[in-house]
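Q: How would the structure tokens look for this protein?
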Amino acid sequence: MNSIVVFAGKEFRDGLRNKWVAGATLLLAALAFALTFLGSAPTGLVDVKPLAVTVVSVSSLTIFLIPLIALLLGYDAIVGEEERGCLLLLLTYPVSRIEIILGKFLGHAAILTVATVVGYGAAGTAAAWSTGGDAESWRAFLGLIASTVLLGLAFLALAYFISVVVRERSTAVGLAVGLWLFFIIVYDLALMGSLVASKGRIGSGIFASLLLLNPADVYRLFNLTAFEHIRKFSGMAGLSASAHFPPAILLAVLAAWAVIPLALAASIFRRREA
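A: Here is the predicted structure in token form.
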């Protein structure tokens, strides 16, 4: 356990020195502030709380941004150490491969968590302080932060899986970008194309299950359908009726997207030769 903490601390300190923490935090905060205050103008006309607008706007941004940050943060976690010759040195110490990968993952997870909580939290607090926020809007906003952290961990785990199965950083970065394109853009386009081509033969239950196979869609479902006033404002009431899952189930699926790829990466890394 001490070794895991040591590796996690090293990765987090490296993130501080390399400006990953500051850069990601400032980027998320700047975009969240912009979406919060530029998007709050119509709220008086439609009687929607500004904090609810923040949840809808920021979650739409997060779908594109957080997965990319997570993939770029972790794609070379293992293969990069191997190319630099540091992995052989690490393996000479009395630590297991599981401790190495878990420690590095927790360090990168801490970077994502700090950036998300500070960046989004500052924007949401400012919106609520300036215009007020009801209890349900606050619950939706706290759910946004929690689910954003889980979404980042899911794509970070996928990045670690890539980093373990390849032998070159160039291959890892290509796969990371390809994975981002697949889950963020291609998957939904293919799903919609399949629905059109099937002419309604794909039932709502199958469609809902297919959404769970994409962590970005699970995140979107949670933040845009879990709370009634958010659902109405975002225009997702129709989707919620056909693909309704309890919020706890959606968060559990997001957590599984983080745990399963990381477990597979750790298993492969434990058995492979250095």
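The radius of gyration is 20 Å.

The chain has a mean pLDDT of 83.

Upvote if useful.
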